[in-house]
Amino acid sequence: MKTKIGRSLLALLVCVQALAASNTQAQRGADRLFSLPRFERAVACIKHYEGLHGPKNHPYVGYGHRLLPGERLSCAMTKRQADSLLRADLKKRLVTFRRFGRDSLLLAVLSYNVGEYRLLGYGKQPKSRLVQKLESGDRDIRDEYTSFCRYRGKELKVMRLRRRVELALLYEK
Protein backbone atom coordinates (compact mmCIF):
# COMPACT_ATOMS: atom_id res chain seq x y z
CA MET A 1 0.00 0.00 0.00
CA LYS A 2 2.75 2.46 0.92
CA THR A 3 4.49 2.07 -2.43
CA LYS A 4 1.28 2.74 -4.35
CA ILE A 5 0.54 5.80 -2.24
CA GLY A 6 4.15 6.91 -2.56
CA ARG A 7 3.95 6.68 -6.34
CA SER A 8 0.66 8.57 -6.29
CA LEU A 9 2.14 11.33 -4.17
CA LEU A 10 5.15 11.62 -6.43
CA ALA A 11 2.89 11.89 -9.47
CA LEU A 12 0.91 14.66 -7.77
CA LEU A 13 4.04 16.52 -6.79
CA VAL A 14 5.49 16.35 -10.27
CA CYS A 15 2.34 17.89 -11.70
CA VAL A 16 1.66 20.41 -8.95
CA GLN A 17 5.17 21.73 -8.53
CA ALA A 18 6.56 20.98 -12.02
CA LEU A 19 9.64 19.34 -10.57
CA ALA A 20 12.30 17.56 -12.58
CA ALA A 21 12.26 13.76 -12.63
CA SER A 22 15.20 13.21 -10.27
CA ASN A 23 14.41 11.52 -6.97
CA THR A 24 16.12 14.15 -4.81
CA GLN A 25 14.08 16.99 -6.28
CA ALA A 26 10.87 14.97 -5.98
CA GLN A 27 11.71 14.20 -2.35
CA ARG A 28 12.30 17.89 -1.67
CA GLY A 29 8.92 18.59 -3.28
CA ALA A 30 7.27 15.98 -1.05
CA ASP A 31 8.92 17.52 2.01
CA ARG A 32 7.71 20.96 0.91
CA LEU A 33 4.15 19.70 0.39
CA PHE A 34 4.01 17.94 3.76
CA SER A 35 5.43 21.02 5.49
CA LEU A 36 2.29 22.95 4.46
CA PRO A 37 -0.68 23.15 6.85
CA ARG A 38 -3.32 20.48 6.14
CA PHE A 39 -5.78 23.05 4.74
CA GLU A 40 -3.18 24.24 2.21
CA ARG A 41 -2.46 20.62 1.23
CA ALA A 42 -6.20 20.14 0.65
CA VAL A 43 -6.37 23.24 -1.55
CA ALA A 44 -3.34 22.10 -3.58
CA CYS A 45 -4.82 18.63 -4.04
CA ILE A 46 -8.20 19.95 -5.23
CA LYS A 47 -6.54 22.42 -7.60
CA HIS A 48 -4.42 19.64 -9.07
CA TYR A 49 -7.28 17.22 -9.71
CA GLU A 50 -10.02 19.70 -10.62
CA GLY A 51 -8.01 22.09 -12.75
CA LEU A 52 -9.31 25.50 -13.75
CA HIS A 53 -12.74 25.07 -15.36
CA GLY A 54 -13.68 26.83 -18.57
CA PRO A 55 -16.93 27.44 -20.51
CA LYS A 56 -17.24 23.79 -21.56
CA ASN A 57 -17.48 22.75 -17.89
CA HIS A 58 -20.66 24.74 -17.14
CA PRO A 59 -22.23 24.70 -14.45
CA TYR A 60 -18.79 24.39 -12.84
CA VAL A 61 -16.47 27.39 -12.56
CA GLY A 62 -13.11 28.05 -10.97
CA TYR A 63 -11.62 24.91 -9.45
CA GLY A 64 -14.85 22.91 -9.50
CA HIS A 65 -17.34 25.26 -7.80
CA ARG A 66 -20.86 24.25 -8.83
CA LEU A 67 -22.99 27.27 -9.64
CA LEU A 68 -26.00 27.58 -7.35
CA PRO A 69 -29.38 28.95 -8.49
CA GLY A 70 -29.13 32.72 -8.74
CA GLU A 71 -25.34 32.78 -8.59
CA ARG A 72 -23.79 34.94 -11.28
CA LEU A 73 -20.20 33.87 -11.61
CA SER A 74 -18.33 33.79 -14.88
CA CYS A 75 -16.02 31.02 -15.98
CA ALA A 76 -13.67 33.82 -17.09
CA MET A 77 -12.33 34.37 -13.59
CA THR A 78 -8.72 34.84 -12.61
CA LYS A 79 -6.76 32.14 -10.79
CA ARG A 80 -6.80 34.35 -7.71
CA GLN A 81 -10.63 34.61 -7.82
CA ALA A 82 -10.92 30.85 -8.39
CA ASP A 83 -8.59 30.19 -5.45
CA SER A 84 -10.63 32.48 -3.21
CA LEU A 85 -13.86 30.73 -4.25
CA LEU A 86 -12.34 27.29 -3.59
CA ARG A 87 -11.18 28.32 -0.13
CA ALA A 88 -14.60 29.76 0.74
CA ASP A 89 -16.34 26.57 -0.44
CA LEU A 90 -13.94 24.37 1.51
CA LYS A 91 -14.43 26.43 4.69
CA LYS A 92 -18.23 26.07 4.38
CA ARG A 93 -17.83 22.32 4.07
CA LEU A 94 -15.53 22.25 7.08
CA VAL A 95 -18.35 23.79 9.11
CA THR A 96 -20.72 21.08 7.85
CA PHE A 97 -18.34 18.30 8.92
CA ARG A 98 -16.86 19.90 12.06
CA ARG A 99 -18.47 17.28 14.33
CA PHE A 100 -16.02 14.74 12.85
CA GLY A 101 -13.05 16.54 14.41
CA ARG A 102 -9.75 15.66 12.80
CA ASP A 103 -11.55 13.90 9.93
CA SER A 104 -13.57 17.00 9.01
CA LEU A 105 -11.06 18.24 6.42
CA LEU A 106 -10.88 14.83 4.75
CA LEU A 107 -14.68 14.68 4.53
CA ALA A 108 -14.87 18.28 3.30
CA VAL A 109 -12.44 17.50 0.45
CA LEU A 110 -14.36 14.36 -0.49
CA SER A 111 -17.69 16.20 -0.42
CA TYR A 112 -16.24 18.91 -2.66
CA ASN A 113 -15.95 16.23 -5.33
CA VAL A 114 -18.94 13.95 -4.66
CA GLY A 115 -21.36 16.24 -2.82
CA GLU A 116 -22.35 16.50 0.83
CA TYR A 117 -25.52 14.46 0.42
CA ARG A 118 -23.63 11.43 -0.89
CA LEU A 119 -21.89 11.37 2.47
CA LEU A 120 -24.53 12.61 4.91
CA GLY A 121 -27.61 11.27 3.15
CA TYR A 122 -30.79 13.12 2.33
CA GLY A 123 -34.35 11.91 1.85
CA LYS A 124 -34.14 8.36 0.52
CA GLN A 125 -30.36 8.60 0.15
CA PRO A 126 -28.87 6.92 3.26
CA LYS A 127 -25.71 8.00 5.06
CA SER A 128 -22.57 6.62 3.49
CA ARG A 129 -20.78 3.69 5.13
CA LEU A 130 -17.84 6.06 5.59
CA VAL A 131 -19.86 8.46 7.76
CA GLN A 132 -21.55 5.59 9.63
CA LYS A 133 -18.15 4.14 10.47
CA LEU A 134 -16.77 7.46 11.68
CA GLU A 135 -19.88 8.10 13.79
CA SER A 136 -19.41 4.73 15.48
CA GLY A 137 -15.82 5.68 16.36
CA ASP A 138 -14.14 3.38 13.83
CA ARG A 139 -11.41 5.29 11.99
CA ASP A 140 -10.28 2.40 9.78
CA ILE A 141 -11.80 4.10 6.74
CA ARG A 142 -9.36 3.47 3.89
CA ASP A 143 -11.63 1.08 1.96
CA GLU A 144 -14.75 3.18 2.48
CA TYR A 145 -12.96 6.38 1.49
CA THR A 146 -11.39 4.95 -1.65
CA SER A 147 -14.71 3.39 -2.69
CA PHE A 148 -15.79 6.87 -3.88
CA CYS A 149 -14.12 6.33 -7.24
CA ARG A 150 -17.05 5.82 -9.60
CA TYR A 151 -18.43 8.10 -12.27
CA ARG A 152 -21.69 7.11 -13.93
CA GLY A 153 -21.38 3.64 -12.46
CA LYS A 154 -17.87 2.95 -13.72
CA GLU A 155 -14.78 2.83 -11.57
CA LEU A 156 -12.13 5.30 -12.72
CA LYS A 157 -8.49 4.61 -11.88
CA VAL A 158 -7.74 8.32 -11.66
CA MET A 159 -10.48 8.70 -9.03
CA ARG A 160 -9.07 5.83 -6.97
CA LEU A 161 -5.63 7.45 -7.26
CA ARG A 162 -7.08 10.79 -6.17
CA ARG A 163 -8.65 9.20 -3.08
CA ARG A 164 -5.36 7.54 -2.13
CA VAL A 165 -3.49 10.82 -2.51
CA GLU A 166 -6.12 12.65 -0.43
CA LEU A 167 -5.80 10.03 2.32
CA ALA A 168 -2.01 10.24 2.28
CA LEU A 169 -2.05 14.05 2.44
CA LEU A 170 -4.90 14.65 4.88
CA TYR A 171 -5.57 11.62 7.11
CA GLU A 172 -4.36 12.10 10.69
CA LYS A 173 -3.81 9.04 12.85
TrEMBL record:
GO terms for molecular function: lysozyme activity. The keyword Transmembrane helix does not apply. The keyword Cell wall biogenesis/degradation does not apply. It catalyses: Hydrolysis of (1->4)-beta-linkages between N-acetylmuramic acid and N-acetyl-D-glucosamine residues in a peptidoglycan and between N-acetyl-D-glucosamine residues in chitodextrins. Keywords: Antimicrobial, Bacteriolytic enzyme, Glycosidase, Hydrolase, Signal. It comes from the Bacteria. InterPro entries: Glyco_hydro_24, Lysozyme-like_dom_sf, Lysozyme_dom_sf. GO terms for biological process: cell wall macromolecule catabolic process; defense response to bacterium; killing of cells of another organism; peptidoglycan catabolic process. Its EC number is 3.2.1.17. It holds the Pfam family Phage_lysozyme. Residues 1-20 form the signal peptide. Belongs to the glycosyl hydrolase 24 family. This is Lysozyme. The lineage of its organism: Bacteria, Pseudomonadati, Bacteroidota, Bacteroidia, Bacteroidales.
